[in-house]
Amino acid sequence: NAGVTQTPKFQVLKTGQSMTLQCAQDMNHEYMSWYRQDPGMGLRLIHYSVGAGITDQGEVPNGYNVSRSTTEDFPLRLLSAAPSQTSVYFCASSYLVEMPYGYTFGSGTRLTVV
Amino acid sequence: AQSVAQPEDQVNVAEGNPLTVKCTYSVSGNPYLFWYVQYPNRGLQFLLKYITGDNLVKGSYGFEAEFNKSQTSFHLKKPSALVSDSALYFCAVRDDTDKLIFGTGTRLQVFP
């Protein structure tokens, strides 16, 4: 089925470890983004991209890197995990101009940093 | 600056009763407004949107939303709540850089 695929679904990291959260979409969406969801804080934008080779920072970019080498993929890298990065991470995508459904979201990655 | 507010952290309603989840917004220009629902351990799912036209917008699962320009509100409604409607609901507005700004979410609890 067409959509946004996130892997892994769950991950436990030790403080200081690095990892990459994967996000792929097959809808040819130009726009892709990463959010983190924390209780009482809604969704906060980490990084976003408006096309291959173009990325920009969102509201809470510190400690995260992204790249967009293809239209389909938008991985999120945690450079040195900290307990404050314990959260649920969502990838979302959309067309840039027409937004018939706003964003399409992946099912999330629940990350725990111990 | 553009923003969206959901003033209620939680809304409780009995099954069969009407429900309202509130949302107010602040944008420059004409608003593009959305409602999403999130079930446990799932991503957000699109419910409905307002871009232009009728102030009453109908969406998925029997939900509708009323756009009120004078009150800058976009409240989500359903005439008869179901226990299965219990979930987290997010309002969002498209800003002038074409990104969506999300509210903090309202947890809807429908009691049998």
Order of helices and strands of chain A: EEEEEEEEEEE
**Main sheet of chain A, how many strands, which sense, barrel?**
7 strands, mixed
Structural class of chain A: mainly beta
The largest inter-chain interface, given as chain pair and residues per side, is: A-B, 24 and 21 residues
- Taken from the alpha-carbon principal axes, the silhouette of chain A is globular
Q: Helix amount of chain B, in percent?
A: under 10%
**Which regions of chain A have little confidence, pLDDT < 50, spanning 5+ residues?**
none
Question: How much strand of chain A?
Answer: over 45%
Concise summary:
The complex is a heterodimer of chains A (114) and B (112). With 114 residues, chain A is mainly beta.
Can you put this structure into words, describing what you see?
The complex is a heterodimer of chains A (114) and B (112). With 114 residues, chain A is mostly beta strands. Chain A is 0% helix and 51% strand. Chain A has no helices and 11 strands. Chain A has strands at residues 4-7, 10-13, 19-25, 31-38, 42-51, 54-57, 64-66, 76-78, 87-94, 104-105, 109-113. In chain A, the strands form 2 sheets. In chain A, strands 2, 4, 5, 6, 9, 10 and 11 form a 7-stranded mixed beta sheet that branches. In chain A, strands 1-3-8-7 form a 4-stranded antiparallel beta sheet, with no helix packed on it. The radius of gyration of chain A is 13 Å and the shape is globular. Chain A starts with a strand and ends with a strand. Chain B has 112 residues and is mostly beta strands. Chain B contains no helices and 12 strands. In chain B, the strands form 3 sheets. In chain B, strands 2, 5, 6, 10, 11 and 12 form a 6-stranded mixed beta sheet that branches. Chain B starts with a strand and ends with a strand. The interface between A and B is medium-sized, with 24 and 21 residues.
